[in-house]
Specification:
The chain contains ten helices and ten strands. By secondary structure, it is α/β, with parallel strands linked by helices. Strands 7-6-1-8-9-10 form a six-stranded parallel β-sheet. A four-stranded antiparallel β-sheet has the order 4-3-2-5. The N and C termini lie close together (9 Å). 36% of the residues are buried.
């Protein structure tokens, strides 16, 4: 099992499980879809969750061109694209060139977890502003209506890990959301360092570099743990770090410094051995 001297954790989808909040987000966005298209929206979203749609976890979504894009996770170059009906796009070289694709959270988004499926589906059906529904979902997640299940033994494991190695939380969520979620998960005061609004994957590489200098460890001694391959895993491997990919969705990439587990509890059990 991959071990290190600095551990960098993602939050959403990594330190808590469940998908009810994604469905809630999708339902809030549904209200912004025109009435005659709402059934189509929900049918497509259901196909996305099951992996039966061109837009699925592991792909990227080109909002302006309305295309599902396959990106080589290690080079971040486009290798193929399909339209909403799964028809292949022939001229991807003219559309995307050979340079690394730039993810900006608005025009090109990495479908690395369940948050982005409702977003892509809503954009296809003409919804202009998804962010307010995302904020509503975050509010819902810390309300009495929503039960965010704690992962048994996670707090104790992280505290024990911190005794021997620094632990960092690096998330795209903003500071207020992170504070509320950590309290809900009983993970407050666990991490030595917390980075919020990280804007992964755009700034992942630079943040990894800053943490390496701050903690004065070799890149090969740093472990990135997350559920989004493009956000947390590929950038780590490209910098010579180790990575733990937490996902029930299989990924084609194989690497000597990569461990793939279905859930964080699987990694915890392996670390204890």
């Amino acid at each position: 099992m991959l071990k290190g001297n600095l551990y960098i954790f993602d939050l959403d989808g990594t330190l808590y499980e469940g998908t009810d909040h994604f469905d809630y987000y999708a339902k809030r966005l549904l209200t912004d879809v025109i009435a005659e298209k709402q059934d189509d929206y929900w049918n497509d979203y259901d196909k996305m969750k099951k992996g039966n749609h061109p837009v699925k976890i592991g792909k990227a979504y080109d909002v302006q061109r309305d295309l599902a894009v396959t990106v080589d996770p290690m080079t971040l170059t486009v290798v193929e694209a399909h339209d909403w009906d799964a028809n292949p796009i022939e001229n991807i070289g003219e559309l995307y060139g050979k340079d690394q694709i730039k993810f900006d959270f608005e025009n090109i988004v990495a479908i690395g977890d369940g948050w982005w499926l409702p977003f892509a589906c809503a954009k296809h059906y003409g919804v202009k502003d998804c962010y307010r529904r995302y904020l509503e979902t975050k509010e819902y997640m810390v309300s009495d209506e929503f039960q965010l299940d704690q992962i048994p033994g996670l707090r104790e494991f992280l505290l024990e890990l911190r005794k021997s190695s620094p632990t960092v939380l690096m998330t795209n969520s903003d500071r207020e959301d992170v504070g509320r979620l950590l309290k809900e998960l009983n993970l407050d005061h666990v991490f030595e360092h917390i980075i919020t609004s990280a804007q992964k994957p755009t700034f992942t590489d630079g943040l990894f570099g800053e943490l390496q200098k701050q903690y004065e460890v070799d890149m090969g001694e740093i472990v990135s743990i997350g559920d989004n391959f493009i956000n947390e895993i590929a950038p780590a491997l490209l910098k010579g770090m180790k990575a733990v990919y937490i996902s029930e969705h299989p990924h084609q990439a194989e690497h000597e410094r990569l461990t793939h587990v279905n859930r964080i509890t699987d990694w915890i059990e392996a670390m204890k051995k």
